């Protein structure tokens, strides 16, 4: 199989093809557009046939369109973390750094690591990810606006300060608006404007939450039934997983989420592990929220957590063990929901 490595940039993409032992076979630079991607695909098919594997430096928005175009063309695409390219360049005989050198490093990293994550074109998870990310951005904007408003209210009259974490409720918004209605001065004017922004942002956030909830109930009912999983957490997991079928096992899913422990032992210290800081931190945070919730609720999660603590583990160690167990459960629920969604289509095809 020929491997084609891609070094992606905002305006151009550079491709380098290598054989199974890493020998350079050819290279091409195209515009970072769908037309350019088709040109690269035709070049690779004409030069090397259709039995190809494409390795793409995982650069988020820079590589997203290229991935979709290659997947639409029926190609196998894997994602290469940028840190692996740096290591490949360090040990290579070729010195320096350029787009072809980087693309060659991507291709050779694919050959060296056969278990890299496979890209998939999953519209459901992409839709939920976009909606959840947009809601998170609006919440951050609203929080910053609330903080500015509270300082202005404190300057005007500290007694008018609303209760903590209440400015997203219509009752407290209206009460504060009544206090600010007829006050003169620039500070009061800025406070009224910011309160108007908060009310508008709250409406948009609530609308997104309703949309996310309705969509999540359709695509992840089994995951939603899991103790400690709310609508936003389930939507975050589905969106960040980006298609559960791309993981070969629950262990691969746990590693992607940064939950699988890292071995750190030698000689007589066999069996020691430590926390990993890598992986998808958003997915890790979602499973962490589930773990924290289950520890507070009566059930299997709390029982498992207390069992680990009774074995002599510290609180962080027991929580990490619970998260690893929950990753296995979440993976199973995602597979169940995926198979349930695919069943009607399979029945129709039959």
Name its key features.
about 350 residues, alpha/beta, Nucleotidyltransferase, domain 5, two-stranded antiparallel ribbon, 13 helices, 7 strands, about 60% helix
In short:
The chain contains 13 helices and 7 strands. It has helices spanning 34-48, 61-72, 82-91, 99-112, 123-156, 170-180, 186-219, 221-224, 231-241, 250-256, 281-296, 300-310, 315-349, and strands at residues 2-8, 12-18, 24-31, 52-57, 76-80, 262-263, 273-274.
Structure description:
There is one protein chain. The chain is an alpha/beta fold and 350 residues long. The chain folds into three domains: 2-112, 2-Layer Sandwich (Nucleotidyltransferase, domain 5); 123-219; 222-349, no CATH class. Helices cover 61% and strands 11% of the residues. The chain contains 13 helices and seven strands. The strands form two sheets. It has a five-stranded mixed sheet. Helix 5 (123-156) runs antiparallel to helix 7 (186-219), helix 6 (170-180) runs antiparallel to helix 7 (186-219) and helix 11 packs across helix 12. The protein is globular.
Question: What profile does the largest beta sheet have?
Answer: 5 strands, mixed
**Beta content:** 5-15%
How many domains is the backbone divided into? 3
Strand order of the largest sheet: 3-2-1-4-5
Strand/helix succession: EEEHEHEHHHHHHHHEEHHH
- The percentage helix is 55-70%
Oligomer: single chain
Count of DSSP H/I helices: 13
